[in-house]
Amino acid sequence: MRRLHNFSAGPCTLPLEVLETAQRELVDYHGAGMSLLEMSHRTPPVEGVRDAAEAALRRLLGLGEHHHVAFVAGGATFQFAMLAMNFLTNGRLGDYTHSGAWAKKAIADGRKIGRVNVVWDGTPDDYMTLPDPASVSSSAGSQFLHLTSNETIGGVQWKSFPACEAPLVADMSSDFLSRPVPLERFGLIYAGAQKNIGPAGVTVVILTDDMLAACDGDLPGYLNYGGHVQNRSMLNTPPVFQIYMVKLVLEWLEARGGLAWAEQAAAERSGILYGVLGGSDGFYRCPVDERYRSTMNVVFRLPSEELEKRFVAEAEAAGLSGLKGHRSVGGIRASIYNAMPVAGVEALAGFMSDFRDRNG
Ligand SMILES: *Cc1c(COP(=O)(O)O)cnc(C)c1O
Question: pTM for the whole thing?
Answer without folding.
Answer: 0.98
